[in-house]
Amino acid sequence: MESNWNKKLLERFIGYTKVYTTSEPDVDEIPSTERQWDLARYLKNELEELGLEDVSIDDHAYVMGYLPSNQEKELPTIGFIAHFDTSPDFNGENVNPQIWENYDGKDVVLNKTENIILKVSEFPELEGYKGETLITTDGTTLLGADDKAGIAEIVTAIEYLIANPDIPRPRIAVGFTPDEEVGKGAHLFDVEKFGADWAYTMDGSSVGELEYENFNAAGAKVTFKGKMVHPGYAKGKMVNALHIYRKFGDMLPANEVPESTSGVEGFFHQMGLNGGVDELNLDLIIRDHDENKFEERKKLLLDITKKINEEIGEERVFIEIKDQYFNMKQHIKDKMYIVDLAEEAMKELNIKPLIKPIRGGTDGAQLSYKGLPCPNIFAGGQNFHSRFEYVTLESMEKATEVIIKMAELATNKF
User: Fold this and answer.
1) For residue 389, is pLDDT > 80?
2) What pLDDT, in 10s, does the model give residues 191-200?
3) What CA–CA distance (Å, rounded) separates 267 from 284?
4) Spatial contact of 178 and 35, defined as CB atoms under 8 Å apart
5) Of 330, 243, 222, nearest to 286 (Cα)?
6) Which of 38, 341, 359, 363 has the most beta carbons within 10 angstroms of its beta carbon?
7) Collapsing DSSP states into helix, strand and coil, what is residue 163?
8) What is the three-state SS of 224-276?
9) H or E element that contains 222
10) CB burial class (10 A; 0-12, 13-18, 19+) of residue 79?
11) What is the dihedral of CA 261, 270, 245, 321, to 10 degrees?
């Protein structure tokens, strides 16, 4: 892409990152935070100003718009989707992006005052971005490349296609969603209204990532009921919920945790613990790519709960397990041409496709189960959900070019 388009891409992305859009878990409403409306309304206006058709924003902040085909023959409608909320795992307010042109491949001092350093020794992939334009945080917030990079890439690709009508294209549907980071981004997504034959989430990480397989996911809330009495007179009376929890934790597979697994290996992840002697509450997530192993993991939690209660002689452990999303592979494996299209686009742009399972989930996982097959494509960011999040302009440029190339290729293949 020409330098003027790179400038637009960068300015657009920086502008998005400065809008506070963090979502919140355990909130029934969608969007889960009022602040997400700020960027949603901005995006709706931006799509209208670009001249897209039927631009809309619904009562839950889902934004949609359409770029018509410039071909006479009938072609499928292809969708591109990204989410505008940022993760509640780390501070997303008052984001102050820093731009490091011609990055030297060495450690980056994000915040001199607080001695926060993005170190190559901790993140060795940094060396691969030497010479590029690096965009980081100031060390006190996340950046929001997950997934504001994806939004910037989609909008810039659409603007580029409008400005270059000689590039053949099918009808393109654009969708921006709230609450992806809290697992609800696709819950109220109107697939029928969106009207795409298939779509892609621009929500991956490293350049070349192309994913159509993800974890099956569930969340569990475990409550440990104790009995508090004065510790000086507790013999034979006190029941300490923390001791019950410790027994529960010891019965989980010690090495089946995020920090000890990779690839398609599943895990249990204890996310948070609160309470005390009288009552303790544990939030835990279950992940596995294999459907049978996923069910076995949920059963193991139920079996542990039952066993502890039997040992105690009364019910003091209570568990609630809720499925969150499932492996999209089941709904894409018979439509691999949509993966092939993205792979071919990358190859034509001299980008090596990295086809691998996602160790996580995207809106696309849930959308695939709602009837919209939706693989995931890289957006370019790294170290999501942390103060060390970064992306390079060149990575975002490549993602933008992949969208444009897929539009062009689709007119010849379908």
Assistant:
1) yes
2) 999 999 999 9
3) 10
4) no
5) 222
6) 363
7) helix
8) EECECCCHHHCCCCCECHHHHHHHHHHCCCCCCCHHHCCCCCCEEEEEEEEEC
9) strand 216-225
10) buried
11) -100
Q: How would DSSP label each residue in 343-396?
A: HHHHHHTT---EE--BSS--HHHHHHHTT----EEE---BSTTSTT-EEEHHHH
**Backbone phi, psi, residue 215, to 5°:** -65, 145
Tokens of 240: 């300490």
pTM of the entire predicted model: 0.88
Element (H, E) at 188: none
Contacts with 211 (C-beta within 8 Å, 6 or more apart), sequence order:
204, 355, 356, 357, 358, 362, 375, 376, 377
Q: How many CA within 13 A on the CB side of residue 256?
A: 19
Q: What are the structure tokens assigned to 92, written together?
A: 């997303």
**φ, ψ at 66 (rounded to 5°):** -140, 135
* Residues with catalytic function: 85, 180
**CB distance 239 to 316 below 8 Å:** yes
Distance, in Å, from the CA atom of 71 to the CA atom of 413, rounded to the nearest integer, reads 13
Say if residue 361's pLDDT is above 80. no
